[in-house]
Amino acid sequence: MIEITEVPSPFCGIGTDDLTIRVDGLLMKVIENGCAVNTPAFEQPITDTSARAEGKEVSFEQAISKAAEILKVTKLPLISGCATDVNGMRGLLALADRCGAVVDNANFAGARNNFLALQDSGWMNTTLAEVKNRCDLLLVVGTDLEVFAPRFYERYLWNKESMFLEDTHQRTVIYLGKGPSGNASTSPNGKKAKVIECVTDDLPEVIAVLRALVKGQQIRASSVCGLAVADLQLLADQLKAAKYGVVTWAAGALSYAHAELTVQKLSEMIKDINNLNTRCSGLPLAGKEGDQTANQVCGWTTGYPVRTSFSRGYPEYDPFLNDTIALLARGEADALVWVQAFNANAVPPETTLPTIVVGRSGMKFSKEPDVFIPVGTPGIDHAGHAYRMDNVVAIRLKKLRDSGLPSTAQVLHAIEQAL
Amino acid sequence: MLIKLTGGTVYDPASGIDGKVQDIYIQDGHIVDNPNKVVVDKEYDLRGKVVMSGAIDMHTHIGGGKGNIARTLLPEDHRLDPVHRSDITRSGCGHAMPSTFVTGYRYAEMGYTAGFEPAVLPINARQAHMEMADIPILDKGGYVMLGSDDYLLRMLTVKKDQKAINDYVAWTMHSAKAIGVKVVNPGGINAFKFNQRKLDLDEQNCHYGVTPRQILQVLATAVKEIGVTHPLHVHGCNLGVPGNVQTTLDTIQGIGGLPMHLTHIQFHSYGTEGDFKFSSGAAQIAEAINKNKNITIDVGQILFGQTVTASGDNMRQHANHKHASPNKWVTMDIECDAGCGVVPFKYKDKNFVNALQWAIGLETFLLVDDPWRIFLTTDHPNGAPFTSYPHLIRLLMDRSFRNEMLLTIHPEAQKMTTLASIEREYTLQEIAIMTRAGAAKLIGLKDRGGLSAGNWADITVYTDNFDRQKMFEKPDYVFKDGQLVVVDGKVVSIKWGTTHVVKPEFDASVEKGLKDYFDRYLTMKLGNFRISDDEITEDGRGSITVHPLKGDVA
Description:
The complex is a heterodimer. Helices cover 32% and strands 23% of the residues of chain A. Chain A has helices at residues 38-43, 60-72, 86-99, 108-121, 128-134, 145-148, 152-156, 203-214, 229-241, 260-274, 291-302, 324-329, 408-418, and strands spanning 2-7, 19-24, 27-32, 52-53, 56-57, 77-83, 102-103, 122-125, 137-141, 172-177, 194-197, 223-224, 227-228, 244-250, 279-285, 308-309, 316-317, 335-340, 355-360, 371-375, 384-387, 394-397. Chain A folds into 2 domains: 48-107 and 289-383 and 405-418, 3-Layer(aba) Sandwich (Rossmann fold); 111-285, 3-Layer(aba) Sandwich (Dimethylsulfoxide Reductase, domain 2), CATH 3.40.228.10. In chain A, helix 2 (60-72) crosses helix 13 and helix 3 (86-99) crosses helix 11. Chain B is an alpha/beta fold. Chain B has one domain: TIM Barrel (Alpha-Beta Barrel). Helix content of chain B is 33%, strand content 23%. In chain B, the strands form 5 sheets. In chain B, strands 6, 9, 10, 11, 12, 13, 16, 20, 25 and 26 form a 10-stranded parallel β-sheet that branches. In chain B, strands 1, 2, 3, 4, 5, 21, 22, 23 and 24 form a 9-stranded mixed β-sheet that branches. In chain B, a hairpin with a 4-residue loop joins strand 1 and strand 2.
């Protein structure tokens, strides 16, 4: 039995790397600095140790050759999930390039809201250490931040010391849209977050008014979607008065059509504030289950985020046409490779297509895939790299135990070799 | 396996060979003396061909977060240049900010065998190395960025001595696996976070009270004292600002004789004369370079067309966003470490400012006397994509071509440049110095950049052609570490280059202060911050080559 300290987590997206984990053979116990997201993800036991083909246990080699057999005869395989580490993504993209596949990430429906805004007008963003040391006002839009990342406030807002704020407890936290489900956003000295509450679907209208107010436009209405314009005026004034305001959102939580326009409106508002003689930055939340990793590695390998097709021999990005669900619904794909090394509960979408699952040990399927190859989890069973939500920082994941499970990269590389 | 390259005309400035017909032998990846063996396994008849060592790009943005933001920002640019996979090469995209694989192929196809990423943020160094690990064929390395990091500025504020700063710089080079140190808008990226929008050489950071001049002084001293060959690599203050020629001249004077490399100096050579209050400072800059032997420069030539600018200088990039074309841009503040700004640009020959920028770069090339102290760059992709190098070489080597091009730019810009009167044409030997021997010497690469026995066999063979663009864009052969990787300008085999680093010594006690700082203010444990060697080598393709420090370590 050993205790490993300073363990980085690939699960929470905010790069916590102070976990202490007790490892007893294959059993893991988070004994310090766990949270509702990380603890179960680290402690999930290994149940599957061998590969299966058509529901029967087979050797690794047999599983690989069966997978290759399926892919050899496909015209448009779909490699989805894309939840793995940097090396896993490298192997995945090499395989996709080789067999003319479409790649897509499970979290892309949310991430698309950010990419469409980024690719149309750009943004001014910041990262977690800047938040920790500079942020004097945090505006949380449409997102239950402490559910997304339970330790966000503890680590990055209510930190004991910061370089540029005398007292971190004096920071202002404001929610726009839904309010917080718990008290993590309440400062240690009891100051509660202010909530300017509206339903999520009303955010586009509310944020349009907020941006107009930031720009000093006259609003003739006195209320918008049930909110007093005066309250939004106060918020606009606070954003302009803050020295280093930060606006955060989880793109997936903006669950209405064309939420990219909300992200764009927020990002343009942030740019406006930076032209009003102060600083303000965006902080999109992400980094779960390899989503940032997938987009980063696909970015440098192809020029594009995931939702990229290799079917014509070169990468083509289309954030709508290359959607997993749409491709399956339209009957365009003819095989599914589901890669999910982090979350045993994230099983592939239902399909009648030949299916290969390269997944975390412990997956339970309603319909047994043609091939299932359990893989180790990056940061537990093998070393690796994963990107944090803020996109700049890749964390070095540690190997914590000897499970003998192969890595995603090893499996996908073996399949590519077998083609 | 013994390879013989027979009868080529060799340009090897590292050995003082200037266009001499001689044979070259390759064995086990290296150039060897004539082994006088009867049996040569493979012979290439290079009679009439030009032979140089593989070219080295000493300043090119090929790895790291801002480049990937630039890629993500510009899907429409990639769509104009899709790259198909082949049996031996991967698919990807080209043009302004190519994908990593395509970067490697296209550099190799122009005869380049190494490229150095000049802006490795310590906190983003993992990404820089991971991206560069996916660049085939080329050797690579990085210059780690300091100067706007709060740790250094705090040290300066509490007047830590030079020794402490040396330890910090050396430690950072180890952690980030670097071969050089760069400073970008010294202290300016930091000042931008405090809402300062400009920072002159002697202007104080409003929080720390530290000036860019002080930062340059301590970092240039540190680099020299810890024995790093590559001088402090400086992207100066006031990039792109008319009148910044004075800042640059003051920067040269202010460094007091310490070794310093001024990068993409074209962007820092602007006067304020003329009707448009924008003029060339190239003559003054060249005069200062010619006089101050401690200074080296690369040009950062602009060439006309669409590209994207990706820089650590978020202060200046924010100011420049008004010129974004297409109109979209990104800036980031990064981890109390640095920042970045990505702004697409379309340089136009009929735009007065762009046209004069083009002329200023060329004037600089032609007015600086010593080719060992000036380097051929476009600051890829900022001035133009690296694929425009053959065109740039023709501009330098062919006066009549240059003057033809000059006649096509904005007429007012033609009046504001002395270019037409400059007769100089670069020789093949001078090109070989700038792009090979000089670059290897500047970076401190042992056994690279030369063709004498003992060097690694990075070799490029061209067919001599009066049209230098045609000549340099399609080498007959390129060998990387002795392996034939390019034939007739096309990749024929894949090899993986090494990562060049230096490992200057530091006092281990430096980590005490750093650990405390990381625990209190940063978001990562110190132990998780340091990059280990196996992160670069564990994929089985990568390797690390440690280069010697200067003998005169203080």
